[in-house]
Amino acid sequence: MSAALLRETASELGALIQELGGQTRMPLMPGYAVRILDGNALAATDHRLKVLRSVGAAPLPGKSLVVLDPDSRLAVNLFPCEDGHAQERRLFDQVLATVEAQQLWIADRNMCTLRFLFGIAKREASFVIREHQNLPWKAISDLISVGLVESGELFEQEIRIEQDGESLHIRRVVLRLSKLTRHDEREIVFLTNLPITVASAALVSQLYRERWQIEKLFLTVTMNFEEEINTLAYPQAALFSFSLALVTYNILATIRAVLGAVHGVEKMDVELSDFYMVDEIQGTYRGMMISIPEEHWRVFGEMAWTDLIEQLKELSAKATLKRFLKQPRKKKTPQPKRVKDPKHPHVSTAKLLSQG
Q: What is the DSSP letter of 336?
């Protein structure tokens, strides 16, 4: 039910965004329906259930795989799992059942398995997935330099992977970074079956960088929509709460699309703050529900698409966007080194202020 709720609402909101003018944002990869896949593990809950009260370990209520459509910015599918210890790979068959031709799937190295790569290719779809170090492959060509990008130098080679007597020729793109990552990695390696005539090595690297969009989704639902409620110890309740947070995120993405159709998409992406928008909605929602009778809301559910879109655009034109702009990040002031005296573990703030 949690997954179906997200799929149905995402389908309707996606149609609304398309009618609004889905071409206002350039497609990430023209000719392909792009899907970004990533896993999300729910945080540990309180020990509220009887079976948990004598357990010292942190109880995990579940995890899921989430699919994001980066062109509409909507979470379009959810694959929930009640077993918090289960590997994400247990859900791959469910994901593969939804893969369609001319889709492009982008994912991290946790999704880099022979079964998953072959499954996508067999369905006439494409992938850009970060290489897992345990994936077996054989080189067909040498690794050669193909150019420079802002973050480093790109190399490429053709390789072959094999499974159950079948083989698949794919491209291996290596980005040798000019600076180490936060995990002290010098190289990032991508695997793709996109033809070189369709996507250069630089484009493959850029496509993988779009994974930040789903990371931003998880950050938004965590910070603004209480996706993880530590009192929901029952796995089904916790996963349902997470699906509702994704639905709410999709509503926010739709509001952004409506505002973008009127005020410009680039302005929405760069300047508008999710926090301020959510704060505004939360602050006025209860009052609106009290002051405006239910029958006055039904008209929106009965409107034709064209009438609803025109109404949304009219309301968006009246929005004062400067109330919801991001605060510019100030340059951090270097912190002085703190001196700790073991003989004096405490200080009086009042005394220090008087001395200053």
A: P
